[in-house]
């Protein structure tokens, strides 16, 4: 895995409008070449940090927030509880994230395996809950077979900004 470059890290900090301390690499980029999803180490400042894929693209973050405001989280939770195939696929996505997260741990951090192996993406314990759509889109764009992330991303009419917003950073 290639470590994040200083330039990418600078862009991510500006995208998120805050510092970051546990970024490992860029998992996905937009067509302009800017980071859209980062991979984070599962321990931050000595404590477990279960979110390994983080959506950084300001455009996608804004568009997905609009979907959340329309009640899409509740809709997905209802569908997950009533659709067995969706529920199994969603549960498998959580397991895929768990396996990837555990594979990132160093020997020094193996004491956290127990805790980090029972929570899914974003620290979700109930694999029928959808905490936030950004998590799932980030997982999907990072290569996780996440049905919620896929459906949310595919529902967007426009997948990225039209003006290379991050070039201004």
TrEMBL record:
Domain of life: Bacteria
Record-given protein name: DUF501 domain-containing protein
UniProt source species: Fervidobacterium nodosum
Lineage of producing organism: Bacteria, Thermotogati, Thermotogota, Thermotogae, Thermotogales
